[in-house]
Amino acid sequence: MPYLERDGDVHLLFLGTKDSAENPENRFHPEWIDATHALLDEVEATSGPSALVTTATGKFFTNGLDTDWLFANLDRITWYLDRVHTLYTRLLTFPMATIAAVQGHAFGAGAMLATAHDFRVVRADRGFYCLPEVNLNMPFTVGMSALVTGRLPKQTAIEAMTTGRRFGGADAVTAGIADVAVSENEVLSSAVERAAALTSTHGPNLAGIKRGIHADVLAALNTPTGESNFSFGNQ
Q1: 232 found inside a domain
Q2: Residue 130 contacts residue 166 (beta carbons within 8 Å)
Q3: CATH number of the domain that 111 lies in?
Q4: What is the band of 229 on the pLDDT scale with cuts at 50, 70, 90?
Q5: 35 lies in which domain range?
Q6: Does some domain include residue 235?
Q7: DSSP labels for the chain?
Q8: Which of 206, 134, 144 lies closest to 165 in space, CA to CA?
Q9: FRET label pair with 198: which of 91, 98, 185, 231, CA 20 to 30 Å apart?
Q10: First vs last C-alpha separation in the chain
Q11: Quick one: which of 51, 50, 31, 40 has its CA closest to 3?
Q12: Residue 230 placed within a domain
């Protein structure tokens, strides 16, 4: 399960640990989503200079949707996807600078989670950013499509969404997915250094600025998912 640490004024949200037997890939189980929101509540309640770095340990930053839970609960798929969307809207409007320290693979909804942060630091030597939905015969929701096309350069979004390409660290920077690629042992420290320089921006004004920047994406993410805009398995 996710947990918090702190480095000065920078909050560190760990999506999970590599030795976690229950969720080693940090997939979006409903309980995991609830736990993540609870930790974000705790961070958001902080007064004074603050910033947020999201990271993980081990092979995966996050592997996205919890497909085991999803296939066992297909009657709740639209509820589940809308719940996933709340993580993106939360981060897009978070009242402090947010940086994803992507130390491993970020796939599907997990790649989108990184995309919902203000900035991204990725590992140069290993770890892929990938949207495999096209190869899984799984459509993007209206909100997910808007998030990717709104946050990435258009041609990068087209390639990522229509080919399922796996972008390595250097390629992710070139494509405009990530801001910088560094060595494995520098991912977290680099993200913390960047976040520490932005702690003074914490506050409702920053949240308002972000709401203006991401207005169209937020509107799409807040559109309830239904049969008219998502039809799993029939594409």
Answers
A1: no
A2: yes
A3: 3.90.226.10
A4: low
A5: 3-221
A6: no
A7: --EEEEETTEEEEE---TT-SS-TT--B-HHHHHHHHHHHHHHHT--SS-EEEEE--SSEEE--B-HHHHHH-GGGHHHHHHHHHHHHHHHHT-SSEEEEEE-SEEETHHHHHHHTSSEEEEESSS--EE-GGGGGT-PPPHHHHHHHHHHS-HHHHHHHHHH--EE-HHHHHHTTS-SEEE-GGGHHHHHHHHHHTTGGG-SHHHHHHHHHHTHHHHHHHTSPP-TTT--TT--
A8: 134
A9: 185
A10: 33
A11: 40
A12: no
Tens-digit pLDDT profile for residues 157-179: 999 999 999 999 999 999 999 99
**Would you say residue 152 lies in a domain?**
yes
In which band, very low, low, confident or very high, does the pLDDT at 232 lie, cut at 50, 70 and 90?
low
Q: How confident is the model at residue 234 (pLDDT cuts 50, 70, 90)?
A: very low
Distance CA 18, CA 104 (A): 11
Angle of CA points 183, 186, 191, to nearest 5°: 125
68 has a pLDDT exceeding 90:
yes
Give how many domains the chain has, as a whole number: 1
Residue 233 in this model has a pLDDT that exceeds 50: no
pLDDT for residue 231 is more than 70: no
